[in-house]
Amino acid sequence: MNFKKQFMEGLLTKNPVTVQLLGMCSTLAITTSLFNGLGMGLAVTIITICSNVLISALRKVIPNQIRIAAYITIIAGFVTIVDLCLQAFLPDLAASLGVFIPLIVVNCMVLGRAEGFASKNGVLASAVDGLCQGIGYTVALVITCIIRELLGSGTFGGGLLNNGEGIRIIPEGIPAMQMVMPVGGFLVLGCVIAGSQWLMKYLNNKKAKEGAK
Amino acid sequence: MAQQIIGILIAALLSQNFILVKFYGICPFMGVSKKIDTALGMGMAVTFVMALASFACYWVYQLLLLLELTYMQTVAFILVIASIVQVVEMFLKKMVPALYKALGVFLPLITTNCAVLGVVLVNVAEGYDVLISTVNGAAGGLGFTLAIVLFASVRERVDKAECPESFKGFPIALITAGLLALAFMGFSGLSIF
I want to staple B138 with a disulfide (CB 3.0 to 4.6 A). Which of A168, B51, B60, B190 is the partner? Predict the structure, then answer.
């Protein structure tokens, strides 16, 4: 088990959002304020860890033919738990994420990790994998949120800082509403993915140069 | 009644398009939109499953209401959808092999398409009756088909165009989808009734 390697994979080289392009629906739909992004990221991280652990523990019991159905049922169970907890303890977040919390069930990232990692590896490694992938997902979400919120409503930390109004950086009237609307989601995420592709290439080139020396 | 149905059709196709406005089903939208033929096949399969799932899940929800188990709705719906997809796959394989061949690979993928679970959850949240739910499912599927076919036809050209190296592949496709969404924003105020 190699924690550092798993962490780098989750964060950059195999980031679920920017490289594997999993879980795009929630990424695009809810990244309008920092509060939403963090909340969604944490919810998905918790669900991925829990489902990875349980699926990994049951990997020798679940028959191969019906594994996908079994995985989805396990994931749906955890999603229901998180959904009910959010509604009870963080009703504001539950209201602003709306239908996208139950939709975590079909978030390909959770199922992807179950099929791609937890079904082949031990319990501890699967838990670490869930955590690392979840962090990578959260980071990608938060970056997208910060850019969209800044350009779209001119604030930082909406729903979280300054009594939920966020700290105003760009005066009212200037920000383009379109950036918090669907259009902005596609444009900003496109640019974020392009940025991460550039960063990976830059790091690879640097490594190659150092190797040459 | 007729007014409501037409209103739902227009909303699902244009002003509240499932992909470009509500962000349901982005994964297949990005994944299988490289060619118009496959995009159309996927759209048809999704439309069929969405209408069927909306109809079936209405009754499942009534049963859950009766048993006072509504908090289990997500688990129940996803199982219903997964089994519908399985049944549709087996049915098509036996009865309409030509269509099964055309849709083949896309059918199992539909289970994890959030448009299907999304429309079912919306139907329940809005309290639609069985007819309106089914119409909403079918209309949502048609909206999905419209968006994915339009996107595929743009993307066939974009893939041949030159663009900065970092933007190659998915980033430029996302930007293209953004411009498509901008066009659909023009419909946003549209409501006849």
Answer: B51
Distance CA B30, CA A105 (A): 19
What's the structural domain count of chain B? 1
In B, which residues are within 8 Å of A29 by CB distance? 22-23
CB atoms within 10 A of CB A151: 19
Distance CA A72, CA B118 (A): 16
In a domain, residue B50? The reply is yes
Q: Do A201 and B166 touch (CB under 8 A)?
A: yes
Structure tokens at A93: 């977040």
Residue A49 touches chain B, beta carbons under 8 Å: no
Widest CA span in chain B: 59
The pLDDT, as a whole number, for residue A50 is 95
What is the Cα Rg of chain B in Å?
A: 17
∠ CA A42-B69-A47, rounded to 5°: 15
| B191 located within any domain | no
Interface contact A182-B174, CB threshold 8 A: no
What is this model's ipTM? 0.82
Can you give the pLDDT at residue A88? 93
| Contact between residue B132 and residue B5 where contact means Cβ atoms under 8 Å apart | yes
* Residue-number span of the structural domain to which B121 is assigned: 2-185
Determine whether the interchain pair B121/A83 forms a contact, defined as Cβ–Cβ distance below 8 Å. Answer: no
Tens digits of residue pLDDT in B114-124:
889 989 998 99
- Among the listed residues B47, B73, B14, B25, the one whose alpha carbon sits nearest the alpha carbon of residue B135: B47
Residue with tokens 């444009």: A187
CB–CB of A186 and B177 under 8 A? Answer: yes
Q: Mind listing the pLDDT tens digit for each residue in A127-145?
A: 999 999 999 999 999 999 9
Total-model pTM: 0.86
Separation of alpha carbons B17 and B25, rounded Å = 11
Mark yes or no for CB contact A190/B82 under 8 Å. no
Phi, psi of A167 (to 5 degrees): -85, 125
- Within 13 Å, how many C-alpha atoms sit on residue B172's CB side? 17
pLDDT (0 to 100) of residue B162: 85
B140 has a pLDDT exceeding 70: yes
Quick: pLDDT tens for A49-82: 999 999 999 999 988 878 888 898 899 999 999 9
A73 closest CA partner among B74, B89, B61: B74
